[in-house]
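Posting for a labmate who doesn't have an account.
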Amino acid sequence: MTHDQITILVILVATMGLFMWGRWRHDMVAGAALLACVFTGLIPGADAFAGFGHPAVITVACVLVLSQGLQNSGAVNVLARHLIPSGLGPTLSIGALTVLAALLSGFMNNIGALALLMPLALQLAVKQGLPPGKVLMPLAFGSILGGTTTMIGTPPNLIVSGFRAEAGLGSFAMFDFTPVGVAAALAGVAFVVLLGWRLVPSRSSADGTSFDTGAYMTEARIDPDGKLVGKSLQEADKLLGDSDAQIVGMVRHEFRLMAPNPHRILLEGDILVIEAEPESLSTALANLGLKLEEDVKAEDSAGDEAANGEEQVDGAAADDAIARDQSGNSGAASPDTVAKGDGDNDAESKADNGEKAKNRDEEVVIQELAVMPGSSLVERSATDINLRTRYGINLLALSRQGHRTIRRLRTTRVQSGDVLLMQGSVEALSGFSQEYGCLPLAERDIRIPEKGQALSAGLIMLLAIAITASGLLPVAVTFAAAALVYMVLRIVPARSVYHAVDWPVIVLLGAMLPVAGAMSSTGAADLLAQVLLGTLAQGHAVIALTVLLVVTMTLSDFMNNAATAAVMCPIALSTALQLGVNPDSFLMAVAIGASCAFLTPIGHQNNTLILGPGGFRFGDYWPLGLPLEILVIAVSVPMLLWVWPL
């Protein structure tokens, strides 16, 4: 081994280790790997950022913009209404939703497809009396499988096509991925729909009232007249036990007690850290005279300016809801529904129509927001972003399945997959969710765009696909033109176009492509291919193909799929060259393996997105994911040998 080969392999191993550790974002790790290659002389400084001009990177960015346009136009909602009949049983309903997700993912970003269909899936779970995870996991896996069917379905396919072009073989066409991808997707979707959804662990009650997001961790302050003043912590915990809630910590004078003495006497103003389901939380607040800490802070900051129409949450109202104390009413507001404010008494006494309209515009809602992968909210707290003062929003509680923390709620750093219980005006919550990449989970009214806009968006997308398939223009050029037309027609407003791009993924791709090139230029890819052939495959092409698929799929369960594809493509090309066989079959194996990550919540962003809403734990994915991966391998290898013979 040469010095350069040792250096690139050390950098690669360290990069993969950091990807799997997950402490830092993927784009940060990829950027560090790129700079390490530059500093060690493996990549010339002048070529360090050449990857950002790669056609695959441009195409991914444009596809994300087009996906946003399909969402904005309502085209997908129209498809959902027509393709998912009502009145079906669980199997047929899950089947229709999963098939639709797979179809959409072939032509738009699969994360966008999942985000569009998640609210529909949650409604379906309620109607069918199923735990939400039974519907969400098939939906997520179906969207992942659908991405394998076309070149634009998922970033790994674009990366694989780019590596083929750089090898002098020309890029893959739009539907070159379709035969193998469709076979794997059909087999996978059929398995998930007919049997697989029954293997998903049940993590929530199917009582039809709400979907399970795991127990919330929230803070509640003891009122002067509350029932807990003067009682011991043990007595308080017993009283809360009647409401299916428990105390996991407390705060006194800004000092956090991680394991408070059960005989400690509670005082006015103490803050209890409570773990409870949303419905149990509201019951506990009402029965024991507790008040949400965020509500107390909001009252302190509002002072005598309550006439601005904002209403505060008061836990001493209705039995099954978090009600408002300033309105003097007991209107219900569960986390799944909208709590509509009527304004305070002064506002109600005004007969002026304009004032009433203002009150209506600023009605307060309580809504659950899922933090999507790549959200700029990740690793930041409510205090970091000045949530209340900047946005007029209160963070009432946080759900993080499988983890318990008693850190102060407003200083707790948010993680991908968390579900936040937020209170604020409709406009404030909508703007916040768009800016920070959060997905509203509660059932809500959605403005249906004009039919003409949905038709335009669909036709432009179909035209771009047709031009790409015919070979008249390169993929990157075609989709860049389509994105520009979307902007001109305001299907995606110009001010929002950059918000539609998942920049961490773009940086990841732009940084990893030169690193993958260094693997080829140093001969490290050839060395790894020799190890693969000599140790595992014993020189047999079919065994080498199977091993490459399995290794790629395994890495993708713990690494970003785009990074996995960038790492494995040079190895695939070198393996095929040393065997003297068709490199296309090996590149296609990388494309399938990099996309099909079903074992962990970190293997694919769609898996992460359903973690909170489904109430899942880390180990809940493999009961369905493992047989699904085995099935994909069993179907893909014969199809690869048939469609792309060695």
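Reply:
Got it, the structure tokens are right above this. The longest strand covers residues 245-252.
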